[in-house]
Design goal:
Chain lengths: 281, 168
């Protein structure tokens, strides 16, 4: 399968990339690792007229601690996240993306800008209360995870903006769990649940639960969080709260799973992920 | 036709200069333009891993990389694994352990396994199975493939993923 014809440029600065993107108009697309975009282009589901490759733009790689949060360059491949245990739930979730070869090429910025609700990182970013930094002709701005994902594969990033970095709070002292169910290891999640828990003794001070592939955008399981916040954490309280994991969701059925099955998976995976996060398993 | 782009690839230590359409996939550049037909096209959808090569020392699926993205990169293909007429320890182990039936997936399996051993020279069986998650064998030959990788790991030199530079 061969993509439709396109023109290609690999600018050597962020300003040049932003200019190339603006000059290319609505048929120009940014290229990072290409592991979401190129498969779509090979299937001719996408046919951009111009690809602006970010590989030569300096400053878009790497993982650093800055002002109590982690700054991850947009072009950092999933493999680097996977091998950075200090990133906690991000490292764990990144290690489950597809397979080693895909993790070597796919990037954190590319995955988040693609905005596929079945991808691992969007719901993790949402649960972690992270944000992305984008830069365009009008300057730089931050977009919180809660505002980033608008609809199915649609984000709040303007067509002329470049996602440059991902910021996640350090989450020191938080427990985390990530549970994903799929039929083959390299598949997208049928459903995945990310859980973050901050506890004092057995009391749950704060809890955040993210849902992957339970709607057109990544979601938070608000009812589960509400049921546990401020309460004692035990296998029983978690099991009871996790029963509400699918509340308010209406996930579309697909080849692998019906709506009801996805809702069932959300409840089971939520119980497991919270158990991990609370140190009970 | 879209404007062509000049690309330089270091394949198995030798420099190749190409003038390519931006849409040319790395796997086709290797096979059709440069004749490295040991790299196979299997599913062509980044699932099966038959097209796995090393790019800057990391295993990648060359059906999902544009040749222009590999400009300036060091590429190792299955042809770069043997040296001085000696098979690479992974190739020896696949042979000895009957780690193949039809052989179509074998080049990708060996390149993925070489990257795995470079990172983790003494993997457990479980780690080998997880490390090969990106490679499919349709002859259901996984048992002997995993055995071959574990055996190769015991051999000196199995973790060498990049061959020393040779002249073109």
């Amino acid at each position: 399968m061969i993509p439709a014809e396109f023109d290609y440029t690999a600018p050597e600065s962020l300003d040049a990339a932003i200019k190339a993107l603006a000059d290319g108009g609505e048929d120009a697309k940014l290229l990072a690792g290409g592991h979401s975009l190129l498969p779509l282009m090979k299937l001719r589901l996408a046919a951009p007229a111009l690809l602006v490759d970010l590989r030569k733009v300096p400053g878009l790689h790497g993982i650093e601690r800055e002002d109590g949060s982690w700054r991850i360059g947009a072009m950092t491949p999933h493999t680097d996240l996977e091998h950075s245990p200090q990133l906690g739930i991000f490292a764990k979730a990144a290690g489950t993306i597809a397979d080693p070869q895909v993790r070597n090429r796919g990037t954190v910025g590319g995955s988040l800008a693609h905005g596929d609700p079945a991808s691992d990182l969007p719901a993790v970013l949402l649960a972690a209360d992270g944000s992305v930094t984008v830069q365009g002709p009008g300057g730089q701005r931050a977009i919180s995870a809660g505002e980033l994902f608008r609809d199915y594969m649609e984000t709040a990033i303007e067509p002329t903006e470049v996602l440059t970095e991902v910021r996640i709070p350090s989450l020191d002292g938080w427990g985390f769990g990530y549970e994903k169910f799929n039929r083959r290891s390299e598949d997208w999640a049928m459903v995945a649940v990310s859980a973050l828990v901050k506890q004092t003794g057995d009391i749950c001070e704060e809890v955040r639960v993210g849902l992957t592939n339970m709607g057109s955008v990544p979601l938070r399981a608000g009812a589960v969080e509400e049921a546990l916040r401020g309460k004692p954490l035990s296998a029983e309280s978690i099991a009871s709260a996790a029963e509400q994991a699918a509340e308010g969701t209406d996930p579309p059925a697909d080849l692998n799973a019906s709506t009801d099955y996805k809702r069932h998976l959300a409840r089971v995976l939520c119980r497991r992920a919270l158990g991990q996060a609370a140190g009970l398993t | 036709m879209s404007k062509t782009v000049a690309v330089q690839l270091q394949v198995n230590g030798a420099t190749h200069r190409l003038e390519v359409e931006p849409r040319l996939l790395l796997v086709h550049a290797l096979r059709d333009n440069l004749g490295f037909t040991g790299t196979h096209v299997g599913c062509d959808t980044s699932n099966c891993g038959a097209c796995t090569v090393h790019m800057e020392g990391r295993a990648v699926k060359s059906c999902t990389v544009l040749a222009v993205q590999a400009d300036g990169a060091q590429i190792t293909t299955i042809e770069g694994m043997a040296s001085d007429g000696q098979l690479h320890p992974l190739q020896e182990a696949f042979w000895n352990d009957h780690g193949l039936q039809c052989g179509y997936c074998t080049p990708g399996m060996i390149m993925a396994a070489a990257a795995l051993l470079a990172e983790n020279p003494n993997p457990t069986e479980d780690e080998v199975r997880h490390g090969l998650e990106g490679n499919l064998c349709r002859c259901t030959g996984y048992h002997n493939i995993v055995k071959a990788v574990l055996d190769a790991a015991k051999t000196k030199g199995a973790t060498v993923a990049q061959q020393p530079e040779v002249t073109a």
